[in-house]
Amino acid sequence: MVKSFPLSPFQSVAVLDHAPVAELVSSVDDRSLLYANRLAKGQCLC
């Protein structure tokens, strides 16, 4: 059986910040940028 352990918002940001890929998160409603990790910011993707 697989148990689910949801991440806190702080843990989610830590995971995204240290991912080896550029991560951009946008709003579903108007596609405004909500979050960009350090790699995305370093590549000037946002």
TrEMBL record:
| Superkingdom in the source lineage | Bacteria
What's the protein called, per UniProt?
Uncharacterized protein
